[in-house]
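Worked problem 6 (solution included).
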Amino acid sequence: MGAHSRKCDWCGSGTPIVRDMEPVNPAFQYWCEECARALIIKGDPIETYRELDGEPIYGRLLDEHCTLKRFYSFATA
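Solution. The predicted structure is:
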């Protein structure tokens, strides 16, 4: 199934913008913008990720909402 036809694994309705490449729970790999923003604000951002739309939407969310800067990895494979 392609990422474009998936739904957010958390809310079940949003279109995913990012995939967690090292998920703690494999059932939650794909995140829509709203759920990804909530993760960042909660203080539990995705550290190794792949942007799904080709635009750095998740990267912008990290810049806007992440107060604790960590080392993030953009997966290219």
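Discussion: The first strand starts at residue 16 and ends at 20.
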